[in-house]
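Troubleshooting log. The previous structure file for this entry was overwritten by mistake, so regenerating from the original sequence record. Sequence copied from the archived sheet and checked twice against the printout by T.R.
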Amino acid sequence: VSGKWFKVVSYGVEPETQMINMDKVEALALEAKPKLIIALGKVAAVNLLKREASVTSMRGKVHDYRGTPMIVTYHPAYLLRSLPEKAKAWEDLCFAIETMRGLQSAEVAPT
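Regenerated output below.
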């Protein structure tokens, strides 16, 4: 699936503050015009959605980020510390694939 549907847009931390510049992340998202965003972890999801919630409560739903569908799953660092949660992350990635398939079929559906 990698490369077929997903193009990773990377970002990093600001050298001076060692923090993620959310304005830059938002600018990258607008520039890349993704069909689907997968937010990895609570910090990413909360900052993009501008509301406080747990990853558990945000999983399994398609959220809206400025008109772009967004799915939330666990951060890879959390999964390394909590191995049993890997199955849930796999479910989230399968949900992302199904969501992407739905988005693609909606694009080609005759009007």
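The longest helix spans residues 86-108. Archived copy saved in two places this time.
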